[in-house]
């Protein structure tokens, strides 16, 4: 599933235009065409098609794993889920083999939501907080300090890996960047949050920000046939490195399953609790 760096990269590509246009900022929608009505979570598919024409794109950004597109009257939220991607191009025909929803602009540009597995969802809302209010703080937001992170982390008696994946705790972190951050901070995925010292919390906070920033710098990770936009997969230290030497101590990386998620760690650098 695309995580914060991958979603950030997609959002930025909508602004830059993906090499085929000047991007969607300032563009006005002419229509929306659906080939899979369930792609629209809210409102109904018919209502979205009726409300979208004439609205102008005022801003494009990201909140957690959501792409946020602010319009003149409403806001579009897009969650890519397992296999979603957004493709830009000047074509009346659908872009991509699995286009579920196509937005057309008055200048002839198309933004196609391509989603092979059909798990992705789109919202058109007057108030995006209907969906976004459940999310925790952004891990890269300057308003979140190491002290704030410790105050959020320390009272909880949950395992670190599970807590980092909880979007109500921090928004945007998934399996890849949780494994990478825990490895960088030398903390075992099973450590309980309330057992972490302030020094260890600061190290984890720094590691989270570092791996996310590096992921963004490299346009995210391309780990399968779904998202092919980045190169961070070439710099993994732990994720999907089972049996390979830890880049820090050369101990083979091990894998276990936590909450149905493959979890990768170094048994020497990240001692078990």
Task: Offer a few descriptive terms.
single chain, 273 residues, alpha+beta, N-terminal domain of MutM-like DNA repair proteins, Helicase, Ruva Protein, domain 3, 2 domains, five-stranded mixed beta sheet, 7 helices, 22% strand
Q: Can you offer a commentary on this structure?
A:
The protein has seven helices and eleven strands. The mean pLDDT is 95. The strands form three sheets. The protein has a five-stranded mixed sheet with strand order 2-9-5-4-3, covered by helices on one side. It is of the alpha+beta class. Helix content is 25%, strand content 22%. The two termini are 29 Å apart. It has helices at residues 4-16, 45-51, 129-132, 146-153, 160-165, 175-185, 198-217; strands at residues 29-34, 40-42, 57-63, 66-71, 75-79, 85-89, 99-105, 110-114, 121-125, 254-258, 261-265. The longest helix is centred in the last third of the chain and has 20 residues, at 198-217.
């Amino acid at each position: 599933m695309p995580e914060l760096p991958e979603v950030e990269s997609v959002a930025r590509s909508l602004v830059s235009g993906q090499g085929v246009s000047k991007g969607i900022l300032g563009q006005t929608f002419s229509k929306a065409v659906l080939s899979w009505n369930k792609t629209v979570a809210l409102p109904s598919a018919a209502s979205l098609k009726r409300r979208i024409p004439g609205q102008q794109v005022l801003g494009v950004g990201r909140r957690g794993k959501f792409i946020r597109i602010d319009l003149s009257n409403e806001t579009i939220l897009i969650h890519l889920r397992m296999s979603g991607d957004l493709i830009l191009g000047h074509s009346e025909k659908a872009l991509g083999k699995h286009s579920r929803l196509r937005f057309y602009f008055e200048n002839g540009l198309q933004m196609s939501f391509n989603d092979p597995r059909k798990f992705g969802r789109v919202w058109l809302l007057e108030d995006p907080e209907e969906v976004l209010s459940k999310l925790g703080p952004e891990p890269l937001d300057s308003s979140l300090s190491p002290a704030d992170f410790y105050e959020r982390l320390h009272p909880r008696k949950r395992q670190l890996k599970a807590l980092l994946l909880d979007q109500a705790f921090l928004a945007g972190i998934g399996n890849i960047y949780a494994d990478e951050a825990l490895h960088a901070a030398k903390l075992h995925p099973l450590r309980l949050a309330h057992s972490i010292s302030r020094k260890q919390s600061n190290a984890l906070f720094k590691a989270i920000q570092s791996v996310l920033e590096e992921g963004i710098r490299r346009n995210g990770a391309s780990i399968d046939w779904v998202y092919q936009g980045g190169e961070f997969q070439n710099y993994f230290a732990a994720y999907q490195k089972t049996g390979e030497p830890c880049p820090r101590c050369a101990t083979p990386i091990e894998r276990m399953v936590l909450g149905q998620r493959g979890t990768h760690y170094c048994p020497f650098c990240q001692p078990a609790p």
